[in-house]
Amino acid sequence: MRIRLVVIIIIVIVTLASLVLLLLPFRFGSTVTATSVSTQDVAALRLTIAPAITPIARNADWTPVEQDFDGVPMVLVPAGCFTMGSTEGEQDELPPTPICFAAPFWIDLYEVTQGDFARLGGQAADGNAFEGEDRPRENITWYESRDFCTLRGARLPTEAEWEYAARGPDSLIYPWGNTFVAENVVSTDNSNTQTAAVGSRAAGRSWVGAYDLSGNLSEWTSTIYQRYPYPTDANGLVIDDGREDEASTGVEVRALRGGSWAHRDIYLTGSNRNTGGPTNGSDTIGFRCARNAG
Prior knowledge:
alpha+beta, paralog of FGE (formylglycine-generating enzyme), disordered N terminus, four-stranded mixed β-sheet, 5 helices, about 290 residues
């Protein structure tokens, strides 16, 4: 009888510990307070995060999942693999390399807006060239972008994360498919030489549901710009080779992604790379944040 009681106690302890471990990444990955998390919230996390850990083989196998963090909507990017780079683009997109993600992560649904930047205490030396609360925050340096993401308990996405969120396991050329569609993107063809409100081109959403990963503004990533290939282990996971030194105070150029209102189609692909000095802002450069999901 005593042995049976001990076994029951052990089972209860293990079950509680498993629940705590399941929820810890999400408690520390956001600024949601304990009083704001309902039973329904916890159930939703279990339902959405569990399948995200299973690698996705095709873009069509994923249904977008959205959640607010401090009033900013983010979309979940599930585990999976894709081919980073392209043989059809610029020289710095070579060689194409298989890259895998063992864990899901969150990325902003939209480019960071001027309204959210101000509301959440963002700091930037220069004002916007194109004013509007729903327009993306531009004229911002890499350091200012990084610091704003940190304020949110988030971070800039890596170059690999950004491209995976844009292209998915299908390794699409554009976020919406393999054919350029001018109406899907804010570009030099239709921008009237300025940004547009974020999310204004719904047909241009990526497989995870993120808007404006092509056009409107080029976006800062955390990554120091270096030549391909990325070093990976036997499972296709990226090995740290120093290009993700986000704490660096040097002048290493950082990778920019996505193209802007001033670019045409060949610069708006998911694999296209650009660069910027970390202290240089521009009216063609903005950003979005990411955060770990587990």
